[in-house]
Amino acid sequence: MAEQLKPRTQIPEELTWDLSAIFETQADFEAAAEALPKEVQAFADQYDGKLENVDTLIAAIEEFENLMAKASHLGQYAMLPVSVDISDSEAQQQSRHVSNVLANFGAAISFFNSQIQEVDEATLNEVVEKEAQFGPFIRGVKADKKAKLAPEVEKALAQLEPVFEAPSEIFEQARSADADYGTFEVDGEEYELSFVLYEEVYMYHENPKIRRAAYDKFNQVLAQYQNVVATAYYTHLQSEKTLATMRGYDSIFDYLLESQEVDQEMYHRQIDMIMNDFAPVMRKFITHLKDVHGLEKMTYADLKVDLDPEYTMPVTIEESKDLVQEALAPLGDEYVQMIMRSYPERWTDFAQNIGKRSGAFCSTTYGKHPYVMVTWTGQLTDAYTLFHELGHAGQGVLSNENNPLTSARPSLYLIEGPSTFNELLLTDYLKNKTDDPRMERSILSKMISRTYFHNFVTHLLEAAYQREVYKLIDAGKSFDAKKLSELKLIVLEQFWGDSVELEVGAELTWMRQIHYYMGLYPYTYSAGLTIATQAFLKIKSGEEKVDGWLAFLALGGQKVPAEATLVAGVDITTDRPLSDTIKYLDESVDRIIELTGELEK
To answer: What CATH code is assigned to 8-159?
Structure first.
């Protein structure tokens, strides 16, 4: 058997994250979970119906922040273990228990949001005059005023939060816990298959037989769950649409974009420009990939293959420390040392084990250090993933250090900028270190196939598909698994044209991503990538200084996206960041093709 995975209990401690930074012991966690309802009751006793003057409001906001931090610590401590081992039934039970605790907490504290929205605008303005740090929070309160419901309705909705979260949990259970992907055979050898193994290993495998056989088996198993996953997704979208209507929004798009402080014009432009203007660049790259590999055709299963797999640079976790120190050096010693703390403090879960979810993420919570989940297979691509997540971690630390809790979180529209910026620094560092054309080509192709393919293509195509599904819901229509597959196929055909053969299974890509349960999240990857690319290019050319980027990272939610990016010298109200990014990528693909020509001489 190849690619055997171990149970979580057999993973060395140094490869796992250390949750004791949140709660030192399980007993501390349980005591906090027990204390929270009493603390929120004391808060209600003190402030319910008494938000009458500025000083009381400021004191209440400060105590509200304190309680929200405690709730987030409980949520993080309960959620993280399930992420790395969905088969751990004790962790599942604890996560569900905390979900209920937090739902009751949300219901008990909902009076605060309802009543602060009743405060007159002049008094709210006085709060900001006296405590400017609460400006972003008050900005949000004013926006929420427009969509507020009766206090008892808000309380009921808060209590129903676990129910609203259920569809995403059903999806996660179906793809990661219930689905048995079994094994597949190639040339007499049997290979173990799981969701994570396909997404993290086989999708990139250099052997086309293994790559395509894994793809076929993976999609055969996924197809068995398409109806239950489609039903879960429909339930989730119906909840969103119902809430949008209840809150007075004509469109589900306006409802979901409100919290991002972005308008529909910016949302649609991001999707339309990439679908139309970036598609030819990617078709050119994919066709070159096909030619280099000597493939008769480029199938959907082949899209993520490395341009030069024999030249893939192995990287150990230990070696990643040197890469972090050297590649992130342009951001200054203080930033680098902050990120380096992630190793001794064990922010990161590197393990490969049974039950670990696919992908990677960074979880930040106020007053604690961030937590990063990756699956380390020992390749340069893992370093890219790590740099990406540590970019989120760096922004989380700086935002939390420079803002109160209520204004520490940036808009979703901005969230993927810092992660991508760090990936670009890694590419630039590796490229500058070599004069070997094969190495340069490998690095540039990694940038295209990992940094941009994943975020500018994969997630953007999710967004384009998601937009079509939301249009159906907005129009009062429904869908089933067959309709979702049909919509996904149309989007893939539009982007790839005749450069890729979309074999059976491509249409099921909608079953592979948790992002669909996070509102209009997928398109923000390309938005963040655009911001990062333009900032990187301007700093590299000397047009902007790195200080502006660091100031941007520390902003949190102080400014709306269109104002926040100006701090880093990027104007997202225009087409320029997108067109500059696409031009940069087009030139990079041309350079890859040029280097291949040199190597073939």
So the answer is: 1.20.140.70
